[in-house]
Amino acid sequence: MATCRGIDVSAYQGTQNWTALKADGLVFAFAKASEGQKGRDARFATHIKGIKAAGLVPGAYHFAWPNQDPKAEAANYIAAVKPYAGKGFTHWLDLERYSDGRNYRGKSAAQIKSWVQTWLSQVQSAFPGQRIGVYTSADDLKSGYVPAGTPLWYPAYPWGAAPYSKAEAASKPKPAGWSPMIWQFTSQPMDRSICYMSAADLRAWAGGTATKPTPAPSKPQYEPFPGASWFKEGRKSPIVAAMHDRLVAVGCDHYKSSRNKDVIGSGDKASYEAWQRKLGYSGTDAKWPPGPTSWAKLHVPNV
User: Fold this and answer.
1) Domain holding 43: CATH number?
2) pTM value?
3) Would you tell me which of 91, 151, 186, 230 could form a disulfide with 226, CB atoms 3.0–4.6 Å apart?
């Protein structure tokens, strides 16, 4: 599997020699821009200017306080990064609970998910065409805080300090059934990540000319079941394209009326109903939309 290397920095890190890091094989770098409704990272401007000047794939992140106003937090982030954002710039919501829970306190899972959706929507509106993702843990994914289909930057440190080569040789993590786009595999001596794309594919993705890396046919990547209400005609998402490809693979390919495989159309409905009949469902149980059981079975390779 093709991968490329990156790091992330904040005020805790001093000035970096970004040109030398790029020469050593670094491809992307993300810098903390803001936190909460008013916080700004003191070294953000220095870091992001250096990242961009070196020709790395740039990104910024905002540390979330889901018990504050999501629109105010989005506005804080937008103002911080606006002078530097442009084509090829990526945006990340750092969604992680403080050890004492102070930034999540008083909020339910449903409220946190709504908060995340609002923040993402506000930032996407401010930077149309630019890429936005979420950095979060397996626990937060299990809690359902992140909308299905959101690019995932996932932190998990199985070894402590480790070189890139160790992460590149390891199996790709699958937190709560998700397929991360980026894995932050260590924080020692600093935060290091690998992206599950080649350098060229990541640049294309960041530039808006590619959706996500195309999975190998024998090992497709899928997202957890997003809920029956998600499957509305006209919905466009890479999840739809993955569903389309898998239905073709199992022989339920009624796609004469589906022009775009990443948009839900009548062909998708007919194909999925054929899949549900294939599983033994009948009557209303075999009708669109998908259910969690048939979705899970569809996404098992070699069914």
Assistant:
1) 3.20.20.80
2) 0.71
3) 230
